[in-house]
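Appendix B.2, paired examples.
Example (i):
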Amino acid sequence: MHKILKDIRAIIDESMALHLPHVKTSDLEKNGAIFYMNGNNGTEFDWYVNERLPAFMTFYNDEDNLGAVKLLLYNNGETEIYIYDENGKNLIKRGYTHISANKTEIFRLAGILKNQADDQRIWDADIESINTNIEISNNALDELKGCQQNYAAMKHRKNILNLTACVSKKITEEGWKVGYMERNDPCNKEDSGWFFASGIEDEGYFSDCKNIELVCVGNVWQQLDSDIFPHIDMPIGTRLIRISEDTFEVDKNDKEIYVLKR
């Protein structure tokens, strides 16, 4: 097994002993095997969008098959650990530690895992079943480096999702979807510049600041209106209106806003 994976094994074993001493290896899937969870997006996506490898997890061996420990290894060597009790139903600990590996070493591991798991169509497998005791070629690493440009737009969108937007309470409280969206200069580094309105607000509605909420763009997308997602990386100065149930276009002041409730 690759040295970094041995370090991950040691961290997970130590976390189990410290925080889940009552859980036996027989209570876990494959007696506590660690699974490389690349089946959702793959190694490339997580490396270039989330700046880490896909999660490493152990699972409870029961009908629900929920996680006992989840470990995230970031490209700087930092690890983020989640520990779950009650057969995975209760998060009892979230912590951080660090492994003694630099970005180059972790990148080489990413190349090995892509080559020996993703490229072999091996998904969410026990890390001991993946052949990681190999030397990865420079050509394979160059190929992985070349994939970075494919994820630049996704990473940019992810960054925007973590910023705030001004949102009409017609959307947050009354259940209307976004009918108008406009991107202005951000006020600070936490601000996306986005302003979302329903399209039914009257002329004086926004003169009262109590009718506007600051909401994370990701929450607007996930909880209030998924239709905004394709447009969130559009530049400052963008003004869009909804023209159908799922379509926006540039506002040219020649069409009525199509208003819609969730």
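Example (ii):
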Amino acid sequence: MEEEWELDPAFAQRDALRKAGRPVEIARTERLILRETVEADIPALYRIGRDPRVEPHITPMKPTLEEETEYTRAYIRHAYAFYDFGLWTVLVRHADGESTAGEQKEGGRIIGRAGLFPSERLPGQVELGYLIAPEQQGKGYGRECAAAILKYAFDVLELPEAHLFALPENLVSVRVAEALGPQERDLISSDGGRVLHYRYTQLLGRV
């Protein structure tokens, strides 16, 4: 007798939202909202990504906003549905009560992008990445959203592990990576240089 296969209700709900053109909310922390990116977010994310203080540490944005918009539209249509994860928009909740730079959106203000993506350094594995606008750094937002992402990765997606890479000189990322409580850390050669590699199998850090 063929075993009956049952679709996970939570996944089915996420799938239904995407098919309806609505973003899935990934996490809601004390101060932040993480949700799937929508087209209206692109100009704000583009401005953050093209900031000269940010550009050296991320995958380069497209040369123009129009090209970035076309690329991100395709990403929204395909990546979330295919992987059931991706890079998401980070917003400060209105309830945070502080004046924040960024684009005003329903529920908060855009301050960056963060999430999960297939690793190129470790085939078959998933990496964690985050980008917070320079003027919003130093407030603990990076640690708060990274902890929420790892919790989502283990509790909702049931991933066995996640990885994070940071340049040793990028002290902001290193502090976040250490605060999350990695189970393993090492220094490896990558792209002609040295990079710190963190491996997480559960969330241990107190963030």
